[in-house]
Write a structure and sequence with these properties.
UDP-N-acetylmuramoyl-L-alanine:D-glutamate ligase; Rossmann fold
Length: 441
């Protein structure tokens, strides 16, 4: 069997636990028509309002868009914002059994006023309130139940007082017992409270502050100090337009430059990185592949306004710009193909690589690409195609995806039907009636 090199093709649905500070993000969107007669400020004519989970809730939404099952742990107040948060998450099919109501606590709310696609001002309703000991113990007692079947834990700390040192210690310890990786997005200067995390993911300024160093100090020195203080396996530092740098306890460093088409808004980009990184790690991808995917997802997020949700299908299409290996799918990885095909019109071409890359195959691909504006998906009827043949096929720009022999293709085509089905039989391009017939060619 050909070796699958595309990291994307190895992504599959996993159950992720997200714990952190929840808040409600609201957007008041309109146009600035005139200056107020009361003060030298713009008057915003409101066109619409939007409400969605924010803070660690944005990590949850990104994970859902990537195809993960998500259980969330957080606190809300006994108020309208808290109930809206709960219902919004439940509508996304998020497990909300880990939402706890704290009496006297006001659910944080951030309202962004946007006029003509520009954020004018943000109004925050929030207080930093510590977690009461009784509620803290209640959450800790629920951890074994909430961690059942979880493949990875994402800690999203916004510094609002929910993630106490005791609660952090408990969640990391419980995850270690069950051999669950913990990915932490920290807040504040004291990273010792995240001790035992698999990966800690601060931004550049947070890293220097936690290391107690000035910004002109060596980044390698700062990383070394953080790894020692936090007792983490790895450190990932997001560096805005400079990309991402990953540091290991043995002193290794790897830098990942970011490619962005146009920076529009960096809001929520860190949440996107945390979600993508956790999802990739939960699927068994190594740190290099996981960081590569996270970098791409972050680049896509900052090309949009507000807290963007990056879907698996969008990620697939961006990946194809740089990684032809991500085109190839076999039986174990068809979940990712299904996600990639969502919203896409495509034609299916059945081939066999037994005779190598012949002129008839080139002609068939060229004809279908020329005659159709739809994506071309190639189905290889060979159980064990030659790696060179698959790699050559993947390098052809007109070929969108490649599927290696799989009966499960019928199920995918049933959910997302191709526009047309073709096969190359005895050097000729023929039309095939059904997907089932295609598999029998």
């Amino acid at each position: 069997m050909v070796r699958l090199t595309g990291a994307f093709s190895r992504l599959n649905t996993r159950k992720i636990l997200v714990i952190g500070d929840l808040m409600l993000d609201t957007y008041t969107i309109g146009k600035a028509r005139r200056i107020s007669p009361e003060a030298p400020v713009a008057v915003i004519q409101v066109a619409r309002e939007e409400r969605r989970p924010g803070g660690s809730g944005n990590v949850v939404l990104n994970l859902k868009s990537l195809g993960a099952e998500v259980v969330v742990i957080g606190r809300i107040g006994p108020d309208a914002s808290g109930e809206l948060l709960r219902s919004s998450l439940a509508e996304e099919n998020v497990d909300v059994q880990g939402l706890f109501v704290q009496q006297g606590f006001v659910t944080p709310l951030k309202n962004r006023i946007i006029a003509d696609n520009q954020q004018v001002v943000r109004v925050d309703y929030e207080q930093v309130v510590p977690l009461p000991e009784m509620l803290e113990q209640q959450i800790i007692e629920a951890l074994p139940r909430l961690l059942k079947d979880v493949a990875a834990v994402a800690i999203s700390d916004y510094g609002k007082g929910f993630l106490s040192r005791t609660l952090l210690s408990a969640i990391i310890e419980q995850a270690k017992i069950h051999k669950i990786p913990v990915i932490t997005d920290p807040k504040g200067n004291d990273f010792t409270k995240y001790s035992g995390s698999t990966i800690i993911k601060p931004n550049l300024s947070e890293a220097y502050a936690a290391a107690g160093l000035l910004p002109d100090a060596s980044l390698d020195l700062a990383a070394h100090k953080i790894l020692q203080l936090a007792n983490a396996e790895m450190l990932m530092i997001t560096r805005s337009e400079a990309g991402i740098s990953v540091f290991h306890r043995n002193g290794e460093r790897h830098d990942f430059p970011v490619k962005v088409r146009e920076i529009k808004d960096v809001t929520g980009a860190g949440d996107t990185v945390l979600a993508m990184l956790t999802y990739a790690i939960s699927n068994g991808l190594g740190i290099t592949e996981s960081t590569h995917l996270s970098n791409i997802a972050a680049g896509m997020a900052i090309e949009r306004f507000g807290c963007a949700r990056i879907s698996l299908s969008e990620l697939a299409r961006r990946l194809l710009d740089t990684d032809v290996g991500s085109k190839v799918f076999d039986t174990e990885h068809l979940f990712a193909l299904h996600e990639a095909l969502k919203g896409m019109k495509y034609v299916l071409l059945s081939l066999t690589g037994g005779d190598g890359m012949t002129s008839s195959i080139f002609s068939a691909i060229h004809k279908l690409a020329k005659d159709s504006e739809k994506a071309l998906v190639v189905y290889l009827r060979d159980a064990q195609p030659e790696a060179d043949f698959v790699n050559l096929l993947a390098s052809i720009r007109d070929v969108k995806f490649i599927v290696i022999q799989s009966k499960d293709l019928i199920d995918i085509c049933g959910l997302i039907p191709p526009e047309e089905i073709y096969a190359v039989v005895d050097t000729k391009l023929v039309t095939v009636a059904t997907t089932k017939d295609l598999l029998l060619c």
